[in-house]
Write a structure and sequence with these properties.
Helix content is 59%, strand content 4%. The chain is mainly α. Strands 2-1-5 form a three-stranded antiparallel sheet, with helices on both faces. Strands 3-4 form a two-stranded antiparallel ribbon. Helix 2 packs antiparallel against helix 6 (149-178). The protein is globular, with a radius of gyration of 25 Å.
Length: 490
């Protein structure tokens, strides 16, 4: 008996959101999407009962792309979902699962296995946050009032973030089946958009950092003393500090490049085999796999840094020097975990502006490792993403064949269509994944408005663009029901 037969009773009984039996009107989809987003914003402001202070954020600089809230019910954000996807993609890429996603039975097993892995990842990520380090410190006052001790309070806190992890899983499923777009993508947009709005319009916070517009208001109307723009201090003030011109340039540049890359495509002509005059095109975009595989790459780095912080919290000064050391903010400052940590912002490498605690060669080595990791990792995960989401040449050729379309001048056969698609899809997938990885590193190194990570900004622009395309398609199908029948949307 194989593993599928053994695990089938459990995997087929995993709770889930029922798919709609018929077509869901566009307005109802928008209502479901808006309702889930309101619930998401509400939960990111509900703090864990029993928490003593904010503690140290386990995700650090990755918090914005993992779409959660430090110390809240959604402490874990989409982290467990993304980590489970990484495990499944690696297992699927090595052909260890033996699941055919075109088989309805195997589809159910795959979805059940994904949910089971998410639950496992919630536990593996949540338990260390509560019981190790200073990520979520327990309150002595709550322990005394309930009479359950600090251990009992910690289990109570874990139960809350466990429920939050399950809630975000089902919220993502509700949007995927009843709403518009992807829940994971919308949660990322929601979190990053908040930071972008704050970065443009925010007033000075407790650190003295203000938004872009308020900073320029002070420069123009309050005679802010920046010094000569020809001098180092004045130029630094305009580009990096109060003026934030470099951050504005990076933000606009990333926006323009992603929108342009989304529009660059190779269009393969199609014609209907039976309906004369019915023609179409299959677009192979430059960013064919989308920017979402970048979440997987950054999540892998997040888990690696989280592991380092756990080891340091347990071993303290006894941690081997080759593994490294961490500062009070939880960032690696030496050793292995320093070199594999991504570049977060300009302060991590601009040695001529900030006093770095390491040698110059160490900074360049870290940049090289980060760039290599993101470029190669982006290409690899893009390939896995294409193959596991039914976007590869074989699956796409079968979809074109099932729709009754064919490539003019070629025989109507899935094998023939697949050979044509193999000329474009694998190469474009690798190039697009590597390009997105390089852009993410560049944006982190130069900085962005609102201190949004480069990956987060790339994700927000790309997901928003795709969401716009999906909404336009939904509206078109709503106006022309016959089109919905042609594309198989009942």
């Amino acid at each position: 008996m194989g593993w599928k037969e053994t695990a089938e009773p459990l995997l087929t009984r995993m709770p889930g959101v029922t798919r709609p039996e018929g077509h869901v009107p566009f307005r109802r989809k928008l209502a479901w999407t808006a309702g889930v987003l309101v619930l998401y914003f509400f939960l990111t402001n509900v703090y864990v009962y029993g928490l003593a202070g904010q503690g140290s954020d386990a995700f650090g600089q990755f918090r914005s792309i993992l779409a959660g809230g430090q110390g809240t019910i959604l402490q874990l954000g989409i982290g467990p979902i993304v980590t489970a996807s990484i495990v499944l993609q690696l297992l699927g890429g090595a052909n260890l699962l033996g699941l055919d996603t075109n088989d309805p039975r195997d589809q159910v097993l795959y979805q059940g296995l994904q949910k089971l892995l998410v639950v496992v990842m919630i536990c593996l990520t949540g338990l260390p946050m509560v019981f190790a380090g200073n990520f979520l410190p327990a309150s002595d006052a709550v322990a005394n009032s309930l009479g359950i001790g600090l251990g009992g309070v910690r289990w109570l806190m874990f139960a809350q973030i466990f429920v939050g992890g399950l809630l975000i899983l089902f919220m993502d499923e509700v949007i995927s089946k009843w709403g518009v777009g992807s829940g994971v993508g919308l949660f990322i947009i929601a979190g990053i958009s908040q930071r972008l709005v704050g970065g443009f319009f925010g007033v000075p916070d407790i650190t003295g950092q203000s938004g872009f517009l308020f900073g320029w208001y002070q420069i123009i109307f309050t005679n802010a003393n920046l010094g000569s723009v020809l001098g180092g201090a004045g130029l630094q003030g305009l580009l990096l500090e109060q003026g934030q011109l470099l951050f504005l340039f990076t933000t606009v540049f990333i926006f323009v490049v992603v929108v342009y890359a989304e529009s660059v495509r190779v269009e393969i002509p199609l014609s209907h085999a039976r309906v004369k005059g019915a023609r179409g095109r299959f677009p192979v975009k430059l960013i064919y796999a989308s920017v979402l595989p970048m979440i997987l790459v950054r999540a892998l780095q997040t888990n690696l840094q989280f592991l380092g912080r756990i080891i340091h919290s347990q071993m303290g000064d006894g941690m081997p020097t080759w593994l490294g050391d961490f500062n009070s903010n939880g960032q690696a400052i030496d050793g292995f975990f320093y070199y594999v940590a991504p570049i977060y912002n300009y302060e991590d490498w601009m040695f001529f502006i900030t006093d770095l605690p390491v040698e110059l060669w160490q900074v360049f080595l870290r940049i090289g490792i980060d760039l290599t990791f993101m470029v190669i990792g982006g290409a690899i995960f893009a390939i896995f993403w294409v193959e596991t989401t039914g976007m590869g040449p074989e699956a796409t050729a079968q979809q074109i064949q099932n729709s009754g379309m064919q490539i003019p001048g070629f025989r109507q056969s899935p094998g023939v269509i697949e050979k044509v698609l193999e000329r474009y899809i694998p190469q474009v997938t690798v190039i697009g994944g590597a390009l997105v990885g390089a852009l993410a590193v560049m944006a982190n190194m130069l900085g962005t408005i609102g201190n949004v990570s480069g990956t987060g900004l790339l994700l927000t622009v790309s997901i928003t663009y795709k969401l716009y395309e999906e909404i336009a398609e939904e509206q078109m199908m709503e106006m022309h029901p016959m089109m919905r029948q042609m594309f198989g949307d009942s």
